Structure to design on (1362 residues):
């Protein structure tokens, strides 16, 4: 801490940081553009000028850039000095010379950092009468819109895109006042994190193209704190609604989880909520029916005979638990496929015994040696890939520290680092999007991935089982050395290899290196579903086939994606009654007698457990004007009146889930007697929105389940982190208002970040080394080992119903390394699930005998991987 | 005491003064063009809808009686998909007109919009849109704005130079 | 000098008094409008005369709402009291020779007694409404009436001394030579002010001051109960105006025209004056009202009585 005098009053500021950081942390309204807490300072925009004085006798002072000046002990600065105020106003005036008269038609309007800063400096009248320079825009794909005229050349976009996210295809072109930020030609932005440009850009150059199609101003959206449903990491989001449809997702800062950034799947995958195909009322035997009739049918069917329930890894804890309570613990099945359930159970067992808590994404950023076993992070858990990309900077950062370069001085740090990268080892069946920053990669069949892991563990600790006949001991030794040398080593593994040995190998490495261990699951509540239900899908099939069950209730789960179609068909036809709760029609709902319209994350409250083991609450964003409601509302008994009752019953039944209640304040929480408003106080149209239906406008809906209100009425104060529906504070209308919600800029939110970890670290490492080492992979003549290949756009069931994501999803294909096939050739892949005609992609790094098959795409649903199959040229 | 009597006397003298009341239905008063009566949406001199669905009128409205949804035509010109004013809530304060950056929304001197049923006071876009530019004849927002729309390319707006050649590095 | 046709007189006086009161609603609105450079009601019937009828129909059609929290019997009784006491006062009013219900020899005292009883209406209305504003209004009314009644009575004693009688026809007869307003000018002014206060008209409408007390003692009243307060007030105005005419301006006495006409002309003049005062004067603060009554008016009234008495003693 350093004492800095701002306009002659002392303030405590972080001595490791710059003055801009310190001033903003203290709540000063100092305008800035090029600086960003995650990107550091470059001093490009000259907007954050302050006056610095030598000592208290110095009356003259000199103008410095706050972002480029360290907050040193005893520094004396002035923000209010007239000369520096005029300087900042002049800078804005200069930046605005070429800024077009677009605000009324600009999507950034009302949440524009440039607008905020212009108002903050007091520049309100254009004196420059000459022509404005113009640019031609590029089509950057279906997600991000480009409007270059509005650019103020702060360089944040390329700094984020290239330096932070590792993208290659966005750059600065041309020179002087004609600098252009874009691609070398029109085309989709390749980086999976391009959506963050929308929030990084201080003005409307990069805007959300999905929002543009149904544009609503920030102040008119009804927001609620939500959790991303498109992967298992549980990134915090705020989702905005207007006129009954979801309009967009913005990042909700959570210091421990997603920080300032989201992946494109999470940001743009929301449009499935608005799909025309959604179930909006109960459907009984193909005919729409009333809610009362559906309830009557549900009760009668349950009363009639034996019922089993199949839960879902994409339904909330509460919904799974409500189903479990309805059908009874022994009749509840988690809905995970057998192999996945086994892997998750193994992961949970390891985590419960681990002496180290699973690292959060922020902690992953701080790890200085990372070993990834069998995961293609960018396509499975994208936001973690971005975190790992930052972690490779940790070790070179030591050099920077030795050179006494402040860590926030971005160009200085990058000059000192050059291309140095910390250790990152990726072992996977095929190339990943992190290979460009990896120290070394090793591509092998899943069993060999596990064997390398076991070998690394043995190299680290000779008491760990050795791997007989492992011939790549040099790489294992190198990885072991890197992990041993690191201060914060990290091992990442997960379910995408669908191989238990890989997970055990990761556990061995973590134990041997005393490293943090991070497991990746596939869906938003895979961990939660596994905690509530033990029995996997095949047990449910068996129960039906044995004639045990008359009625099957399937919760938000398309079984055809998880098991062989023949098995699912036989089960569903054997069951006399099939009741399905889901959002969108799929093959399972086609077979259902009764379909209940289940609320998505936007229409329900609930809790997800992320792969980190973090329980996080999401809140209903709006009340739908139809029969859609949360699955747990459909299934709950009458004695549970609201969400808190469900949570109370759940924590009574599952002591391990008791902490879930602390994930967010209960429904009775109030700030000075008031609820937290979901809408900004400027929300408009309250007496006009519904008057075309009825001129007497209705009372806003009540929310018994949460401390949030469905209107702009409520506390003007900042709510606790788990309840922040949107970031706004006076003079900060853009998302950068998050600055005012943090204790210190870039640090935790006031009152602590949202979410509670469910797995406390064990006192001792009670996990013995796993010793079952699989034999080395041997290609079978004529048969291929088919392993899953996940796609960020496409493998996720729900986001695929969003048009933008669907447009970017690849065509299903099979990747092999064989001279028998040529790129693009049509082949027939035959496996237990049937025969599929697919184009071939040649991946030279894939080991012989292994083929990677697109996973999760609708046309390839029902293939249980890994599996052995034949690949032949199509006739 | 005397002042009280004087007051009474002065008030009494008003018996002989002209009355200011206008006998409304029999005689129509003169209303200035800036009188704040029925709200209309105007068109620009080229006949296009002026409203760009920026939502500023809606947010300025103290009784929240304006609701609209933005949409775009195929060339990028933004306009309201629907535009609804609930005149049964409107207080004719004119803030919407002041907030409007395109002169689209204007208040007119017509105040005779009484209805027997409140629902008839809900005006949709087709009820609001007129054929002319209203009080501000010359203005066309799209000629000033930098975005490209049908019939106006980049660099063709007022005070704009031709689009930059980004492949040139000449000083 | 009691009327030969008592029933006829009673009916006549009741009907005329009530019609005049009703008519006054229109008169007051037109006059206020005149002095405020407006027109007032001029749409219903010729000159808007049927406005009264329209208002009457309206007020009879309105829901007669008795709030659940009020003291019901008292609440209903209160508006009747004002009506009854004012009408009783009309009984001793000599309109013209022979047109009087009852020529009491203590007519003036009867009038004073009735007007004192009238205050019960307001106090009880305020009390029974169970509403703080109504109660405050009632309390104000009680204090105000009490204070202004004292010198009201005393201010009239000069007239009684001059006429040598409490009987109103005798007092009128005593003015054949000279209206009492001339010897008793101070008494006239005091009575005028006290009369204004007695009818709770602006500037003495503190019991119902709408800017402070919603509507004071009649906040909770609606429909015809409210209407009775309303009509009672106008009858009060009529009564005080006629009393002024009778006591100080020679009642029916006048050249040429019939006595009734003279009486009506004089009464109407003072009614108009009441309206003019309403149009011109603001409401005083309550403490100003009280100190005005006790510290200025009462001593003046006493002095007036003393001087009158002395002069009469010396004169005779």
């Amino acid at each position: 801490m350093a004492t800095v005098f701002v306009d002659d009053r002392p303030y405590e500021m972080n001595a490791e940081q710059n003055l801009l950081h310190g001033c903003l942390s203290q709540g000063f309204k100092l305008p800035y553009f090029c600086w960003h807490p995650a990107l550091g300072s470059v001093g490009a925009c000259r907007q954050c000028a302050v006056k610095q004085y030598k000592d208290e006798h110095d009356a003259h002072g000199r103008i410095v850039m706050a972002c480029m000046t360290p907050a040193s002990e005893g520094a004396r600065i002035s923000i209010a000095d007239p000369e520096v105020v005029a300087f900042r106003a002049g800078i804005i005036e200069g930046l605005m010379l070429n800024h077009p008269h677009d605000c009324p038609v600009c999507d950034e309007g009302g949440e524009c950092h440039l607008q905020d800063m212009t108002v903050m400096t007091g520049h309100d009248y254009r004196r420059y009468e000459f022509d404005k320079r113009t640019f031609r825009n590029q089509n950057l794909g279906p997600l991000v819109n480009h409007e270059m005229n509005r650019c103020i050349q702060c360089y944040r976009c390329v700094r984020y895109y290239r330096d932070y996210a590792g993208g290659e295809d966005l750059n600065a072109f041309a020179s002087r006042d004609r600098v252009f930020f874009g691609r070398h030609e029109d085309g989709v932005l390749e980086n999976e994190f391009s959506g963050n440009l929308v929030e990084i850009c201080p003005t409307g150059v990069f805007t959300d193209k999905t929002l543009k199609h149904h544009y609503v101003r920030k102040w008119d959206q009804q927001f609620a704190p939500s959790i991303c449903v498109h992967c298992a990491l549980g990134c915090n989001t705020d989702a905005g609604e207007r006129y009954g449809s979801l309009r967009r997702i913005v990042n909700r800062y959570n210091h421990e989880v997603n920080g300032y950034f989201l992946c494109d799947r999470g940001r743009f995958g929301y449009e499935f909520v608005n799909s025309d195909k959604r179930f909006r009322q109960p459907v009984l035997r193909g005919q729409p029916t009333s809610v009362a009739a559906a309830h009557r049918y549900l009760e009668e069917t349950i009363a009639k005979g034996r019922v089993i329930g199949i839960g879902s890894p994409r339904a909330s804890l509460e919904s799974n638990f409500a189903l479990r309570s309805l059908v009874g613990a022994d009749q509840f099945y988690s809905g995970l496929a057998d192999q996945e359930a086994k892997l998750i159970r193994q992961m949970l067992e390891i985590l419960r015994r681990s002496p180290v808590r699973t690292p959060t994404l922020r902690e992953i950023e701080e790890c200085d040696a990372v070993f990834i076993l069998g995961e293609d992070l960018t396509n499975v858990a994208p936001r973690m890939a971005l975190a790992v990309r930052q972690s490779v900077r940790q070790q070179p950062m030591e050099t920077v520290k030795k050179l006494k370069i402040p860590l926030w001085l971005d160009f200085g740090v990058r000059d000192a680092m050059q291309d140095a990268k910390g250790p990152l080892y990726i072992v996977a069946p095929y190339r990943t999007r992190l290979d460009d920053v990896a120290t070394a990669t090793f591509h092998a069949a899943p069993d060999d991935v596990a064997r390398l892991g076991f070998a690394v563990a043995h190299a680290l600790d000779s008491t760990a089982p050795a791997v007989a006949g492992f011939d790549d001991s040099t790489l294992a030794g190198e990885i072991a050395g890197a992990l041993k040398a690191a201060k914060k080593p990290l091992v990442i593994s997960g379910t995408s290899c669908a191989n238990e040995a890989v997970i055990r190998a990761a556990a061995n490495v973590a134990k041997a290196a005393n490293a943090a261990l991070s497991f990746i699951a596939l869906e938003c509540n895979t961990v939660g579903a596994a905690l509530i239900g033990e029995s996997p899908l095949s047990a449910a099939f068996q129960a039906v086939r044995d004639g045990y069950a008359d009625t099957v209730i399937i919760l938000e789960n398309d079984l055809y994606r998880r098991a062989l179609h023949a098995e699912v068909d036989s089960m569903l036809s054997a069951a006399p009654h099939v009741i399905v709760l889901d959002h969108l029609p799929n093959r399972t709902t086609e077979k259902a007698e009764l379909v209940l319209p289940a609320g998505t994350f936007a229409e329900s409250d609930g809790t997800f457990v992320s792969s980190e083991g973090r329980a996080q609450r999401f809140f209903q964003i709006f009340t739908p004007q139809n029969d859609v409601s949360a699955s747990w509302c459909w299934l709950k008994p009458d004695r549970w009146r609201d969400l808190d009752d469900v949570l109370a019953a759940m924590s009574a039944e599952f002591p391990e889930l008791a902490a879930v209640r602390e994930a967010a304040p209960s429904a009775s929480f109030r700030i000075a007697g008031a609820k937290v408003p979901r809408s900004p106080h400027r929300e408009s149209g309250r007496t006009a929105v519904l008057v075309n239906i009825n001129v007497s406008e209705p009372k806003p809906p009540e929310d018994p389940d949460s401390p949030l209100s469905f209107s702009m009425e409520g506390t003007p104060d900042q709510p606790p982190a788990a309840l922040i529906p949107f970031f706004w504070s006076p003079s900060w209308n853009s998302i950068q208002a998050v600055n005012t919600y943090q204790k210190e800029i870039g640090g935790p939110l006031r009152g602590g970040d949202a979410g509670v970890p469910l797995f406390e670290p064990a006192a001792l490492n009670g996990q013995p080394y796993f010793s079952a080492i699989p034999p080395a992979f041997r290609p079978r003549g004529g048969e291929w080992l088919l392993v899953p290949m996940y796609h960020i756009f496409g493998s996720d069931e729900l986001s695929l119903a969003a048009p933008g994501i669907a447009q970017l999803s690849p065509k299903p294909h099979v990747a092999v390394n064989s001279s028998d096939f040529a790129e693009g050739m049509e082949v027939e892949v035959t496996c237990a699930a049937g025969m599929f005609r697919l184009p071939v992609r040649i991946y030279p790094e894939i080991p012989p005998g292994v083929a990677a098959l697109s996973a999760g795409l609708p046309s390839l649903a029902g293939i249980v991987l890994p599996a052995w199959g034949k690949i032949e040229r199509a006739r | 005491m005397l002042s009280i009597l004087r007051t009474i006397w002065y008030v009494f003298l008003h018996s002989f003064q002209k009355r200011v009341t206008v006998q409304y239905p029999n005689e129509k008063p003169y209303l200035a063009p800036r009188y704040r009566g029925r709200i209309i949406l105007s068109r620009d001199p080229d006949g296009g809808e002026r409203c760009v669905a920026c939502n500023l009128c809606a947010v300025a409205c103290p009784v929240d009686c304006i609701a609209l949804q933005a949409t775009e035509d195929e060339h990028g010109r933004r306009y309201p998909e629907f535009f609804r004013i609930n005149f049964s809530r409107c207080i004719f304060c004119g803030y919407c007109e002041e907030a409007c950056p395109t002169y689209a929304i204007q208040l007119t001197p017509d105040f005779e919009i009484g209805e027997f049923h409140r629902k008839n006071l809900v005006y949709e876009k087709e009820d609001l849109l007129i054929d002319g530019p209203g009080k501000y004849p010359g203005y066309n927002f799209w000629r000033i704005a930098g975005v490209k729309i049908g019939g106006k390319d980049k660099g063709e707006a007022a005070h704009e130079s031709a689009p930059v050649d980004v492949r040139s590095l000449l000083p | 000098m009691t009327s030969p046709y008592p029933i006829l007189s009673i009916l006549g006086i009741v009907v005329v008094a009530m019609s005049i009161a009703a008519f006054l609603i229109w008169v007051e609105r037109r006059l206020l409008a005149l002095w405020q450079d407006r027109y007032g009601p001029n749409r219903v019937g010729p000159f808007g005369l049927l406005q009264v009828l329209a208002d009457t129909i309206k007020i009879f059609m309105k829901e007669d709402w008795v709030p659940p929290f009020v003291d019901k019997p008292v609440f209903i009784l209160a508006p009747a009291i004002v009506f009854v006491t004012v009408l009783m006062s009309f009984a001793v009013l000599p309109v013209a020779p022979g047109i009087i219900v009852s020529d009491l020899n203590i007519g003036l005292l009867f009038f004073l007694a009735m007007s004192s009883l009238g205050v019960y209406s307001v106090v009880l209305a305020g009390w029974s409404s169970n509403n703080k504003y109504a109660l405050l209004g009632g309390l104000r009314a009680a204090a105000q009436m009490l204070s202004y009644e004292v010198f009201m009575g005393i201010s009239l004693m000069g007239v009684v001394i001059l006429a040598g009688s409490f009987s109103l026809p005798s007092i009128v007869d005593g003015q054949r030579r000279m209206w009492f307003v001339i010897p008793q000018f101070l008494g006239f002014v005091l009575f005028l002010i006290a009369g204004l206060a007695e009818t709770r008209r602006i500037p003495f409408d503190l019991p119902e001051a709408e800017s402070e007390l919603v509507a004071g003692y009649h906040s909770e009243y609606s429909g015809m109960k409210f209407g009775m307060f309303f009509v009672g007030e106008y009858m009060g105005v009529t009564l005080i105006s006629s009393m002024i005419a009778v006591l100080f301006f020679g009642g029916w006495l006048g050249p040429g025209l019939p006595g009734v006409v003279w009486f009506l002309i004089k009464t109407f003049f003072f009614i108009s004056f009441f309206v003019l005062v309403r149009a011109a004067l603001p409401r005083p603060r309550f403490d100003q009202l009280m100190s005005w009554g006790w510290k200025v008016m009462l001593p003046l009234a006493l002095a007036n009585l003393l001087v009158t008495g002395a002069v009469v003693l010396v004169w005779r």
Notes: The mean pLDDT of chain A is 92. The longest strand of chain A covers residues 834-842. Chain A touches chain B through 49 residues (CB under 8 Å). The two ends of chain A are 73 Å apart (CA to CA).
